[in-house]
Every structure is written in structure tokens, then in C-alpha cells.
Write a structure and sequence with these properties.
By secondary structure, the protein is mainly alpha-helical. It folds into two domains: 2-111; 121-255, Serine Threonine Protein Phosphatase 5, Tetratricopeptide repeat. The protein contains nine helices and two strands. Strands 1-2 form a two-stranded antiparallel sheet. Strand 1 (121-125) and strand 2 (128-132) form a beta hairpin. Helix 5 (172-185) packs antiparallel against helix 6 (189-202) and helix 8 runs antiparallel to helix 9 (244-255). The chain is rod-shaped. The chain starts with a helix and ends with a helix. The mean pLDDT is 84.
């Protein structure tokens, strides 16, 4: 703005000089004209110089402005790229979290399933309630299923294995009872008597105890030991007078000689 004011001042001075030239004589007029021309030329040069400087300064400012705009545009593009990467990262993170949650749920479910398999179960067998694990229940029922199919040799092996693996067990008295019956069925009377007696010594109040005493008497009869059989039947009647086995013992006593 100051330079524009300077240019205007120069032009005004020139025209003022022209106005004054008329009062001089010819020589003076020529000198005045020459001086005026010089001053006009100088003024033009100064004006051109000022215009050039202003143009150059404007060009430099425009160049700097373009450079700044370009840098700003590059920064914007960089920020956009960073934002896109962050969005992609967040999306991947969301997927990863969802997958981890699914895996955690599967793991928890698997642990719960395994814990349920390991949790004790309450069962009632031959009038007794007790806790067993699932494997114990499975193996006992498998051995009993073999007996009920009539595979008495296989049942003996299954019950012997069960008694070795689960000792002690709430199933133990019942397992000895069915083992004795499987041995009776295969005519292994002495072993059957031994296992029935184990039942009686460990659980004399067991629901199967009267039947075990009667089975001992049956084994003794098969072994031709009538005297021992009579004694066993008499003990059965005395120990378990209200049982069905005692009623059967009274009937058999009348047939034994």
C-alpha cells in the first residue's frame, strides 16, 4: 500500500511540473521538458520496479501458499490413511474379541461338562443311597448287565475287576452278592460261599444279606454238606426271621435229612 502511495506522489509531481512549464521561456521550457521527460522516465522506471516487486512478492506468496496447501493436502491424505488403518484394526480387534469370547465359552462349557462327569452321583441300590462317580456307576451297571445276560463267567471277571478298581465303594456289598451268584451258576461253590460271607461280615444289615445266607446253604447242599447247610438255614431263621429268605429256609429244613 505504501508503494502505491509513492507512485501516485511521483505522478502528481510530474503533472505539477508540466503545469509550471508554460511560464518559462523556450530554453527554460526545453530544459523543463527534458527534465520532465527524465522525471517521467524515472517515474515510469520506479513504477515498473514497484510493479515488478509487487508481482514478484505476490508470486512468492502465491507459491508459498500453494506449497502450504499441498502440504496440508498431504497431511489430510495421511490422516485419512491412518484413520482407515485404525478402522481396519478396530474391525479386526472386534473379530478377534468375538472369537476369543466364543473360544472362552467353548472352554467353559467343556470344563463344565468334564466337571459334571466327575461330580459324584447319588444312587440307590438294594435299599441304600450313596454317592459314586460316573465311571463307578457305569462299570457296576455294565457288570450287572453281563450277569443278567447269562454270561456268568464274564460277570465274574467284571465284578472281580470292579471290586479291585473301586474299593471301598457303596456298591461293594451288592457286587460281592452278584459275584457269589455268578460263581454259584458256574458251580464254583467254595468261592461263592467265601464271597457271600464277605458280604455278611462287611454289611450284615444289607438288604441282600438274608439271600446271601440262603445262597451259602444252597452251596453247602451242592457240596453234599447237609449238616452245614442245616446249621446255616437255622442261623438264617434266627438272624432274619421276618425275611422271605427265612420263610424259604424253614421250608428247606423240612426237606433236609
Amino acid at each position: 500500500m505504501n508503494k502505491k502511495i509513492q507512485i501516485a506522489a511521483v505522478l502528481l509531481a510530474i503533472w505539477a511540473s508540466v503545469a509550471q512549464a508554460g511560464i518559462f521561456d523556450d530554453e527554460e521550457a526545453r530544459r523543463a521538458i527534458l527534465d520532465l521527460r527524465q522525471r517521467v522516465d524515472n517515474g515510469r522506471q520506479d513504477a515498473a520496479k514497484l510493479v515488478t516487486e509487487e508481482t514478484q512478492r505476490a508470486t512468492e506468496e502465491n507459491t508459498q501458499l500453494r506449497r502450504s496447501m499441498l502440504e496440508l493436502q498431504n497431511q489430510i491424505e495421511s490422516l485419512r490413511a491412518d484413520l482407515a488403518r485404525m478402522q481396519g484394526y478396530n474391525e479386526q480387534l472386534t473379530r478377534d474379541v468375538a472369537e476369543l469370547q466364543r473360544q472362552q465359552k467353548d472352554i467353559i462349557q467343556g470344563v463344565d461338562d468334564r466337571l459334571r462327569k466327575l461330580e459324584p452321583l447319588k444312587v440307590t441300590v438294594d435299599g441304600r443311597e450313596f454317592a459314586v462317580d460316573q465311571a463307578e456307576k457305569r462299570d457296576y451297571e455294565a457288570a450287572l448287565a453281563i450277569f443278567r445276560k447269562g454270561d456268568f463267567v464274564g460277570a465274574q471277571a467284571a465284578f472281580v475287576e470292579f471290586l479291585k478298581r473301586y474299593n471301598p465303594s457303596g456298591y461293594t456289598p451288592s457286587a460281592f452278592f452278584w459275584l457269589g451268584n455268578a460263581q454259584y451258576a458256574t458251580r464254583d461253590y467254595k468261592e461263592a460261599i467265601q464271597n457271600f460271607r464277605i458280604l455278611l461280615s462287611t454289611a450284615p444289615d444289607h438288604m441282600r444279606a438274608p439271600e446271601a445266607v440262603l445262597s451259602i446253604a444252597n452251596c453247602q447242599v451242592e457240596l453234599k454238606d447237609t449238616k452245614a447247610a442245616r446249621k446255616t438255614l437255622e442261623e438264617l431263621i434266627k438272624a432274619y426271621p421276618q425275611s422271605e429268605a427265612a420263610a424259604a429256609a424253614k421250608e428247606r429244613l423240612t426237606r433236609l435229612k
